Amino acid sequence: MATTNQPGGQRTTGGRIKSKSSRRARSARTELQLLRAACWLFSERGFHGTGIRDIADTAGVAVSGMYYYAASKDELLEAVARRAMNVLISSSNETLRDIDDPAERLVALMAVHVAFHARNPRAAKVADHEFQALTGEAREDILRLRDSYEAVWADTLRAGVSDGVFQDRGTVARLALLQMATGVAHWYRPDGELGIPQLCERFADMGLSLMGASRGGRLILARDLSLPDPELVLQRVELDIEPPPQ
């Protein structure tokens, strides 16, 4: 959240009031409650369908108390989208570390993207769609984060084409892969047919197939590659502002 001056001369930084150490834990819990409430409501009703009082009531916080954490619901939207994008970027970077093979990098990216959207469906919907309600610098900042994340996908696909591992499908390939995996947030259920690790492997195969991945005339399957540890991926994509299932 942006740094703002509040009534009484108090100042917030990153959405958290500067306070004595004895109050910091309570302040952090309240901030988390507000972000979880905003995340749930924005994903359920949309940004424009959510009022500031709705967020306060859901979080169990007085409306007047909210202004110690955010000056507006726009700041809450920015904070939710920023946290979601930062976790997606950091978990991808950690998972890709020390992986050079383009096919294995694609499989790792698919695993992180699918796991993130399956594990954090509410936050994913806000970061993928509702962030567009932001304006000005806040919107540009979130777009820069998204572009930075998608650039890793573009670089991976280009490297695979250059190495002769992938077919050149153009820019549309990146868009198709991301859209396919992003849809998981809309339909995945933990009690469904597949768990997240199995889902990641299925999507890895579909991603490789879409790119025509092959070596020596033989199609590459996910089982032919070193897959990222699914439990480690799940830990990396864990997002504390994701509200519990309703």
How is this structure best summarized?
With 246 residues, this protein is mainly α.
Strand arrangement, major sheet: 1-2-3
Helix coverage percent = 55-70%
**Per DSSP, what share of the residues sits in E-state strands of 2 or more residues?**
under 5%
Please give the CATH architecture of the largest domain.
Orthogonal Bundle
Give the total of domains: 2
Over all CA atoms, what is the radius of gyration? 20 Å
Q: Which consecutive residue ranges, at least 5 long each, have pLDDT under 50? A: 2-19
Query: What is the arithmetic mean of pLDDT?
Result: 89
Secondary-structure-based class equals: mainly alpha
* CATH level 4 superfamily of the largest domain: Tetracycline Repressor, domain 2
Distance between the termini: 26 Å
Can you tell me the CATH topology of the largest domain? Answer: Tetracycline Repressor, domain 2
> Biggest sheet, open or closed, and with what strands and sense?
3 strands, antiparallel
Question: What multimeric state do the chains show?
Answer: single chain
- Overall shape: it is elongated
User: What string gives the helices and strands in order?
Assistant: EEEHHHHHHHHHHEEH
Find the count of extended strands (DSSP E, 2+ residues). 5
Quickly count the helices. 11
